[in-house]
Amino acid sequence: MDNKLYSIALNMVDGVDRVNYYKLMGHFGAPERVFSASQEELMKGAGIREKAASSIKSFRLEEELNGELNQIQKSGVTVLTTDDKEYPSNLKTIFDPPPVLYVRGKIVESDAIAVAVVGSRSPTHYGKLVTENMSKGLAEMGVTIVSGMARGIDSIAHTSAISCGGRTIAVLGCGLNIVYPSENVKLMNEIMNHGAVISEFCMSTKPNKMNFPQRNRVISGLSLGTVVTEAAEKSGSLITSRHAIEQGREVFAVPGCINVLKSQGTNRLIKMGAKLVESVEDIINEFPQDVRAFLKPEKGNRNIDCNLTGSEKLIFSLIDTELRHIDTIIEQSNLPVGVVSGILLNLELKGLIKQLSGKMFVRG
Fold it and tell me: What angle do CA 120, 124, 251 make, to 5 degrees?
């Protein structure tokens, strides 16, 4: 049995977290030697506690490992350790990289140019629109979008990258045999076809609350920087940004309305020194020159059409990232109802605005 199989087994042992794993490797040098050591040597030599040492000694190595390998094979999962050349280069440089990484899909060399996009699980329309534009703009330039496949901002970030043929990576807080949240089955399959879904947890690990802060460090660790597009004061996204800071990575935040609770987290990040982001260019400018050289040219502002007529420019100027009702647009434009309705339709066909339920309009 090779070292990778012993690494998978050691990663499965209850009580052997990444800290204990690296303590054991530091003392024994190879995972195989861990399983043949006495409990006394595990505790006194490697410095792990009795509970973890007992778990190692009572671990049914062959039985448990065979069960895990069977699940890995059935699910088409690739397992990487830090010794593998395919292991993500950005992640390998953090203080505590996952000893074992489960991968569905494929990680490629260009995924080293990656940005994490995270935020609220129940975003406002503003948060959704900003996330969509930022993620799509970055993906079109060749940047891989990394997020956690959670509801809200995470799912929008992945979907936006996929929509323009870009690459995206989802990091789960559970095993790859579990889709969490359950409604993201289709999205998970799409991500695998446009990148990868990864986890450091064993195949059938449930999405326990304690797993997500640990997962968040992997999201930031895979990325050159983390963008928080919308987040409340106590959002889990702020944990990801703290990990990014500890890892020496850039932190970006999109400013929001001071009266909106879901903007308090991002606004506080800006107060604390995160870079204020208004466009994709604000993010790209923080990349080293050698990284920027690999990117495709920015496609430019999707919301500007030089061929607009005077009336179209007027109506377009009255619509921004906040929802605007048609009656308000008519009142502010001083144009007839029929004219405004026709212009709104033309702007929508050009992809410059979107119509939502209740005759509400917003920039596209």
Answer: 45
CA distance 339 to 106: 51
Say if strands 114-119 and 225-230 run parallel, antiparallel, or are unpaired: parallel
Euclidean distance between CA atoms 60 and 223, whole angstroms: 37
Domain stops at, among 257, 292, 327 = 292
As for how many domains the chain has, the answer is: 3
Quick check: is 104 in a domain? no
Q: List the one residue out of 345, 350, 316, 315 whose CA is nearest residue 330.
A: 315
Is 2 exposed, middle or buried (CB count within 10 Å of its CB: 0-12, 13-18, 19+)? exposed
Nearest-angstrom CA–CA distance, 137 and 111: 16
User: pLDDT of 324-333, one tens digit each?
Assistant: 899 999 999 9
Mean pLDDT, the chain, as a whole number? 93
pLDDT tens for 199-254 read 999 999 999 999 999 999 999 999 999 999 999 988 889 999 999 999 999 999 99
Residue 302 has pLDDT above 70, yes or no: no
Q: Tell me, what's the pLDDT at 303?
A: 44
Same domain, residue pair 236 and 327? no
How long a stretch of residues is the chain?
A: 364
What pLDDT, in 10s, does the model give residues 61-80?
999 999 999 999 999 999 99
Per the structure, the complete domain to which residue 200 belongs is given by 109-292
| Separation of alpha carbons 40 and 231, rounded Å | 47
Boundary of a domain, candidates 54, 74, 94? 74
Q: Quick one: average pLDDT of 116-121? A: 96
Q: Does residue 261 sit in helix, strand or coil?
A: helix
Q: Are residues 118 and 255 in the same domain?
A: yes
Partners of 228 in the β-ladder: 118, 253
Query: Which residues have a Cβ under 8 Å from the Cβ of 31 and sit 6 or more positions away?
Result: 3, 6, 7, 9, 10, 24, 25
333 phi and psi angles, rounded to 5 deg: -85, -20
